[in-house]
Amino acid sequence: MKILTFTTLFPHNINPNFGIFIANRMTAFAKRGHEVKVVAPVPYFPGWSCLKRFPKWHSLSQVARKEERMGMEVFHPRYFLTPKIGMSFYGLEMFFSVLPLVRQIRKSFAFDLIDAHYLYPDGLAAILLGKLFDCPVVVSARGSDVHQYSEFFWIKKWLKYVLKSSCASISVSSDIGETMVELGSPAASTHIIPNGIDGKIFYCMDKQEARAKCNLPQDQKIILGVGHLNERKNFLLLVEAMNFLAKGEHLYLIGQGDAREKFISKIAECKLQDRVHLISPVKNSELCYWYNAADLLCHPSKHEGSPNVVCEAIACGCPVVASNLAGCQKAVQSEKQGTIVPTWELKDYIHALEEALWKKEYDRKWISTEGHKRTWDSVAVEVEDVFQKALQKYQRK
Length: 397
What we know:
Blueprint: E1 2-6, H1 20-30, E2 35-39, E3 42-43, H2 55-58, E4 66-69, E5 72-75, E6 78-79, H3 90-108, E7 113-117, H4 119-133, E8 137-141, H5 144-147, H6 153-165, E9 168-171, H7 174-182, E10 190-192, H8 207-213, E11 222-226, H9 235-242, E12 250-254, H10 260-269, E13 276-279, H11 287-293, E14 296-299, H12 308-315, E15 320-323, H13 326-331, E16 338-341, H14 346-359, H15 364-371, H16 376-395
Parallel strand pairs: 1-2, 1-7, 2-5, 3-6, 7-8, 8-9, 9-10, 11-12, 11-14, 12-13, 14-15, 15-16
Antiparallel strand pairs: 4-5
């Protein structure tokens, strides 16, 4: 098959970790004998030096127009975006912006199917491209696209249109899949395919060696959090919990986000500067050392699809304390791997962290072995089956 993957969530030269899970999935898929090209649109922003005072947006101007990643040709066309204004038009704006490039690609690469990730605006643009070029579209939901955008009246209508117009849809967790069906996705063509693990990157190693690589003390009890510093990931709850953990535990939060200043203020307010540490994002390959160095990973997220950091931590043998979401439950299937916290109450997280740190013993090698059972290769087999059935369904029309 010739597949055109269409998504704004894809690694690029400025942020090589961005959307790495999609790159991993499609790399494994391509290894099964398929051709994959990627169109990963980027919001337009002028590259003028005088605009460097807006680093988040200015960095987008430095994204390469075309590059090769993991053996796939990747295009980064620009699309017009008005931040937080006219959101119901984003999908249409993206469609018209990328159309010339997709037309050009089509001339030399007659793709059989469009593989779209993120229902809106990416999914809508992909559906319109599919109609124009007469090819099937399979859409994959990631979580926030379903949970957040369905709260907006007009965008919810677009979500319904996308799900009803696609030949098949994929969700990374059962709860997201149920919501997609409620929005109009036919149950028979809605598939649950959680993310996988790259065992060459995430594996169990000696804790002391890992701490040495991360320049961490050998005698600390270390809690690790990995993800965006925003409200959805809920790490402020974890900072508050540190107030009540009185045995010298240390929290390391790896990530960046718009709420970073709020975290700095909260840490200062709680007088936790010596025990809570904000770490800038690290390379995906280096996360392995951090998972192995930590006594546990805590992931208190409010909304989640297939939580990559939880799966990665388990693959490294690191026990997990996580929120009661379907994706987390799927990853943490046994108390031998960690704890699912029933609520988002502070007291419940404090109790779970104390139990995991001081009262439970974990077999990290066993945890790692369990975490390696679902690989990206097995994910690729399931995706291939969905694509083949979608093609057959489309051809019968």
